[in-house]
Design a protein that fits this description.
This protein is of the alpha/beta class. The protein contains eleven helices and 16 strands. The protein binds S-adenosylmethionine. S-adenosylmethionine (SAM) binds next to helix 8 and strand 11.
Amino acid sequence: MADNGLSPAVPPRVTLHDDPLRAPVLPFDSGVLPWPAHGDIAFLRARDGWPLRQFPLERMRCEQGFKPLADGLRQAGLDVQPQLEGEAEASLVLVLPPRQRDEAQALLARAVELAAPGARVVAAVANDEGAKSREKDLQQLAGLAGTLTKFHCRVFWTPPLPGAQDAALLARWQQADAPRPILDGRFSSRPGVFAWDRIDPASALLAAHLPGDLAGRGADLGAGWGYLTAEVLDRCPGVTALDLYEAEARALELARGNLAAHAARVALFFHWHDVTGGLTEGGYDFIVSNPPFHAHDRGDRPELGQRFIEVAAQSLRRGGRLLLVANRHLPYEATLAATFATQRVLAEGGGFKVIEAVKNDAVKGRGR
Ligand SMILES: C[S@@+](CC[C@H](N)C(=O)[O-])C[C@H]1O[C@@H](n2cnc3c(N)ncnc32)[C@H](O)[C@@H]1O
């Protein structure tokens, strides 16, 4: 293995079956493309893993807005930002476009914009995540010089770029995932974030059953673009402060704007944060959550929601309340029983359940 400039003491957070990460290195691995000898290499929607480690990475600048993946890159010693600034500076741009079309097209446009004159953009997409459509997109934007298919993915690349072939298309796609008003202007959102243009029905059920007496300091775990927090603040006048914890930087930024009108009355704090690692604050009077149960690879991960419940239990004061909504089939009851004194179903409907769990009070809670 080549010296990749990283500390040998840091083991890669290996994902053995991360095929979309194996794909973009394929043309370099097989000698079809040269790894640039000079200049920065931009990697958009980067993640760490062993396929990357065979190249010199000290010149790599990574963009990753999802905190757990950004933390993985940082722990591996890589330079990572939620959003790379600058343009036309990279000697190579690697990109893993997401499934959502508008977000993917905007990302391809940024990739082309980041490429220095003579640099290539190399993109990789899993076959079942729109690989052929994204390949056509890149071809339309900047032309294609090659394609390989392997690992259930397509990897495709531009010729050395003089810039975008179609400046009007570049400008249009750069705006494709821009924030915009949704739900009759009540909120602002953008393609790619969770339930970006609608109210998630599970969150709506929780909102409809929020106890109006929630008061004091609260937290929203996995706050998204801010819908649930907005409902808490509208329905519960006794709330004085609220911490929003969200892993997606773009969603958190939207929440900041969506809740600006409440900030005069309530102290709001926005944390770009991986909840599974615990919270930065504690002693909350209440916590609300519609926890995630999918990882970035879209596999079912009920243990994510279970971890959110454990973290909520650690972060509430004694007697504090967790208000949780989940798909009815998700196995959260045992975790709630192990970490809370009581739990009761407040509502069920549309395949979801709303649960209120109360942390042990000072008498019952000794030892917890
Ligand atoms: C089911 S959505 C709920 C979003 C929002 N509360 C709503 O009601 O629309 C779960 C949210 O958790 C976020 N998330 C996923 N993994 C996370 C993690 N490890 N730490 C913090 N937030 C996470 C997702 O980005 C998503 O916004």
